[in-house]
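The data layer described in this paper is built around a simple, fixed record for each protein. We quote a single record here, exactly as it is kept in our systems:
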Amino acid sequence: MSVDGIAFVRQHGALAELAHALHEVEDLDALLMLAARLVTSALEVDFSEVLEAHGNGSEFRLRAGSGWRWDPQGPTRICPQDGESGYGLALAGPVVVRDYRKDVRFFVSPVLLEHGVVSGLRVPIGGPHGGSWGLLGAHTRKERGFLGRELVFMAAVADILAAAIAIAELREALHRG
């Protein structure tokens, strides 16, 4: 099987696992962590993250991540609006950065630079009431261009997460009753 074929199988296996977990896992944070681990593995990247937007996208809270030196469940990390996160949310589409050291479109988060991140991809996660809930990201320490199929994979993961977030909100509303 070709390298592309293996990547295709790995990515679709990750999507199937996440979709199955959507029906089995009632804890949203556990599902977000699973998504982060699956993205890291399926795309063979060094880091992944799920960022929740707050204040109409003026700041972002890390909800889940994989590969980072700090504990993603620990203290909240806030990413500035003028960075790639705010840019991605405003764009409402994927943002691909081949080299953060050379990209001049936005401010680069010191967290990315501290971890030696060079390339990255972020896609919006839809909100249950329209707009964007946050962002799903994948990052590497080596320069890399992300392929169209990788953007499609990330968008599919983001869609599953959007469904999970909507389900979690419905469960919470029913529980409050």
Q: What stands out?
A: The mean pLDDT is 85.
